[in-house]
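Archive record:
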Amino acid sequence: MVGSVNPKVEIYERMIASLREENSDYCGESMNYCKRPETRHIQCGEVLKRDKTYLSSIIGDNRIPLIRNPFLNMSCPEISKRIRPKYNMSSLKLGGVAFARNVFTDYELIEKQVQMTWHPDNRYCFVVDKNAKDDFKRRIEQLVGCFEDQMVMPVTLFMDSAGHNQNLAHTKCMKALLQYPNWGYAMLLQNHDFITKTVYELDRIFDLMGGVIDVKTGGVIWERDMKHLKWDPKSLKLFRNESAVPEDVLKTSLTFACGSVQASLSRGTVRWLIETADLTRFIDQQNQIVFGGDEQMISTFQINCQLGIPGHFTKDCLEQGVSVEQVTRLVHWSSTGHANCVTKISRHGVCLFGIEDLIPMAELPHLSFNKVYPKFDWSIIDCAAELVFNRTFLGQENQHFDEDYYSNLVSVQYHKNHKKPGYKLNCTSNRKPRRYEDYIGS
């Protein structure tokens, strides 16, 4: 009903009218970031200024979710128009980033993430869950087909939220991405991981990491302890060429760590995982774990330095009972229920991020945030995307970008110094950790 006094109804009316115009171009020729119709009224700058009165007017009952566009034009020219920037882009020092993402829903979020991370040198791989809706599969296939020189979809697999086949999917992507030359680092991601750094910031961060594997490393959860299976490289047939590996390494059982499926890996690490190692049996055994087996693979290979994986860490911190955090992903657990979340809502034990989280997204060093749900809050997606756009193309400075923070990560310091005589690892960084919890209630 046109002219409603309910602001949210008016927003939806405008949005639906725009979506009904199948070929409408509501962005026009503007060189600025273009929000969707339903979020065009959102003043992201007021949120960044910590205007609590304004923030309270766009959350709760006034929160703006995404309503899927059934008329989304999926022709290659239109997809390209939505993704490719109108600005020229500078070259990347490391030759680009490869993104390996397991997906099953929310196509418009996936496309938005491609737009936010777009660079001619970047590469993208998607593995789609076989249980995904047919329309979603078709859209991903169309997206990939429009960028065959930059994107690949090697296989569809049955995947679930318990972690089964997540590692296998990433392995398929890593193998497919190696066909593309030049990229220097790969990010292993899942559907609702939301990258908040510019392509140039990612390039600089990975350069500072210097080849190290970035993944969370912590103790194994007892439910995931599969000691009845054999975990030595010999039994796992882990090495394609066992003659090049010392016998004691082949016969020594792996020390397990639990972390996350999300990780950042150098090209050398990816090549080792695909060409030096054969992960088939390891992944098969991990898939026998009822829940969360996917969170152990990269962390485990990272700490078993005897394997020789490029960018490795060590088990020393684990043995001291110290967990080593990552910067690839930030997650906030709803350990005490919804009340523990700023947005007061969670899924699978993880808080959903909303527009309330724009400031930590803008300031914290983490590369991605999990979970961001478009059906819950599209405002945070559009505001973060606008921020990334302004920093990438309009010269807006990220005053919180701290190169020393990345250089002083525990894993980076170990990687730089572990071969030096007398080096002693300090499992806690000399820098004060920058934590999401510091923003709660601020």
About this structure: The two ends are 39 Å apart (CA to CA).
